[in-house]
Every structure is written in structure tokens, then in C-alpha cells.
Amino acid sequence: MRPRDRLRIAMQKSGRLTEPAQDLLMRCGLAFRQSRDKLFCFGEGEPVDLLLVRDDDIPGLIAQGVCDLGIVGRNVLNEYQLTAGREDAVALAEWRALGFGRCRLSLAVPQEMDYAGPVCMAGKRIATSYPGLLGRWLRERGIDAGVVTLAGSVEIAPRLGTADAICDLVQSGGTLAANQLRETDVLLESEALLVGPQVLPADERGDLVGLLLKRIDGVIQVRE
Ligand code: PRT
Ligand code: ZN
């Protein structure tokens, strides 16, 4: 078999999605042997291999055809779709919602701020790692606000005086509370997705995707 006759799935190397994604693939009957550098896992039964990467790189790897499928949060997929350059704009599809990694992308303001709706953000600075999703939300509402893009530690920006509000992922709400912030608007509900190109490759990989989707549906049904 030529190497690209094997299906390649990108998943997060180390983070919140790693364990549940591995667990899902295991329940689908897949088994892997990890390479020494721990970046590649060779499929031992079915011709399905894994590439272990940062979650932010997953949509691009699929768009470039390096990987055929990926397991990634809707937040990362949609941000990529809004910010990727035209040359990367291969249409990616949500093949399945996987039911783990649930969170929401929300606007949050300092607890003491008077907040009477999104218009209150006009002329304010909002810190986020999701400038694409936040920018779209603001545009849809005709709000002219400053978007301060930060790679991490977004929740401390208001205390540092670098922003008036934040737009970040929320799960339990504990991080917001610990930083005296109040969640006001949900921009996006997210969960882990199986993502792939809208058009499947017309070779053995297409059949393998079909097989994998059937097994995933079986696992999801049992879980529900
Ligand atoms: O290194 P790499 O880039 O791969 O990892 P990462 O640090 O970017 O991602 P990681 O592992 O933190 O998250 C991976 C994915 O899990 C995200 O893209 C989301 O789709 C999903 N997810 C689910 C979350 C959360 N829940 C979550 N709570 N991602 C991040 N958080 C963070 C959030 O940013 C905030 O700092 O947790 C904090 C809020 O949590 P609560 O419970 O205090 O509200
Ligand atoms: Zn990341």
C-alpha cells in the first residue's frame, strides 16, 4: 500500500481534547503504535494513522491535504474559516459533532461595569484569542470596538488595563469568577468535531472515512 492509501487523522497532542479523542478512536476499534518523537501514531489494524499536533494547526493541515480528517473544537475550526488566507480556503465540513470538549465563546465584562447589551462595547477594547469570531459578532451588530488579540491569559487583560472586556472560552465559569468578570453574551457554542474536506478523496481513503463515520455513529449512539 502506498503511504497516502492510508487515512491520516490530526488530533491534539496534549490538551483537553487528547484523552477523549483517543478514547473515541479506541472505541472505534482502532489501535496505534506511537513513534519515538510521539508526533505520529501508526495504525496497527486498519490503515488509519494519527498525527499529533497543536489544535490550532489542525484545520490548516486538512486544508493543505497533509491530513484527511481532524478532531478539533468548533471554536478553532470557525476561527480558521474566518481568518485563513484565500489560498487556504478549502471548504472544510463538520462531519460529526463528538459530544466532548463542550464550552462556549463568550463576552465577559468586569463585574462592576454597567452592561446593558452589546452596544455598550462601542469604543471599548476587547481582548481575545478569537479576533475572527469576535470581529464578525461586532460587525453583525454594527459595533465599532477595538479588538486586542492575545495568545493567552486573556482573562487578566482588564486588570492589567490593556482591555475593557474579554471574549474567551468559558466552561464552568470559574476562571471568569476568579478574575471578577461577568459573562454577558455567548458568541458560539462549541464542542469537539470530526472535521474533513467537504469533498472526500475518491480513493481508498474515501471508503475508510465511510467506515470510520459508521463506527463513530455507533459509539455516539451507545453513549447517548
Ligand atoms: O497546545 P494546544 O494549542 O494544542 O492547546 P490549547 O491550550 O490551545 O487548548 P486546550 O487543550 O486548552 O483546549 C482545547 C480545546 O478544548 C479548545 O479549543 C476548546 O474547543 C475545548 N475547551 C473546552 C476548552 C475549555 N473547555 C476551556 N475551559 N478550552 C479552553 N478552556 C479554558 C478557557 O480558555 C479558560 O482559560 O479554560 C478556561 C475557562 O474554563 P472555566 O471552567 O474556568 O470556565
Ligand atoms: Zn491551541
TrEMBL record:
Regulation of its activity: Feedback inhibited by histidine.
Entry GO MF terms: ATP phosphoribosyltransferase activity
Keyword DNA-binding part of the UniProt annotation: no
Principal subcellular localization: cytoplasm
Reactions it catalyzes: 1-(5-phospho-beta-D-ribosyl)-ATP + diphosphate = 5-phospho-alpha-D-ribose 1-diphosphate + ATP
Pathway in which the depicted protein is active: Amino-acid biosynthesis; L-histidine biosynthesis; L-histidine from 5-phospho-alpha-D-ribose 1-diphosphate: step 1/9
Cofactors demanded by this protein: Mg(2+)
EC number: 2.4.2.17
Record keyword Ligase present: no
Subcellular location: Cytoplasm
Keywords assigned: Amino-acid biosynthesis, ATP-binding, Cytoplasm, Glycosyltransferase, Histidine biosynthesis, Magnesium, Metal-binding, Nucleotide-binding, Transferase
Domain of life the protein comes from: Bacteria
Domain ATP phosphoribosyltransferase catalytic: 54-216
Family: Belongs to the ATP phosphoribosyltransferase family. Long subfamily.
Cited function: Catalyzes the condensation of ATP and 5-phosphoribose 1-diphosphate to form N'-(5'-phosphoribosyl)-ATP (PR-ATP). Has a crucial role in the pathway because the rate of histidine biosynthesis seems to be controlled primarily by regulation of HisG enzymatic activity.
Protein name: ATP phosphoribosyltransferase
Annotated source species: Fulvimonas yonginensis
Name of the gene encoding the protein in the UniProt record: hisG
Residues of the full protein shown: 1 to 224 of 298
